[in-house]
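Researcher: I'm preparing a figure for a lab meeting and need a structural model of a single chain. I don't have an experimental structure, so a prediction will have to do for now. The sequence is pasted below. Please return the structure as tokens so I can convert it later.
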Amino acid sequence: MKKIDSFKDEYFFLSNFYEVPVEYDGLKYGSSEAAFQAQKCEFPSKRKEFQNLNPSKSKALGRKVTLREDWDEVKNRVMFEIVRNKFKQNPKLKEKLIATGDAYLEEGNWWGDRTWGVCNGVGENRLGKILMKVRDELKNE
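Model: Understood. Here is the structure written out token by token.
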């Protein structure tokens, strides 16, 4: 089985830092990273602050917000829904995701994310698993 173990260069579109419009919960963001970070906010009105931020600024702001009480329970579902929206709302990206075939998708990284990705061979690869699940869902539509 082919393995895509880095979301850069030709596979950068798989990254949440890839800038493409994503609508989630009634708001439009410039990336799936911005959409995800916004959902951390305790107060929904604060989510609008993320709409025009690039992915890096979104991630930085996401580290400073007051987390909603249920964040640990909902974050995986929220990530899945946002990633699914990213590819459903952007047909060219949907085609590119499907074109990865049955390749194993792994967000290999050097910055130490062992929850959503894999660093130095260690990690849960939640984002990669979500991408593969979304790919399977889109193939079967």
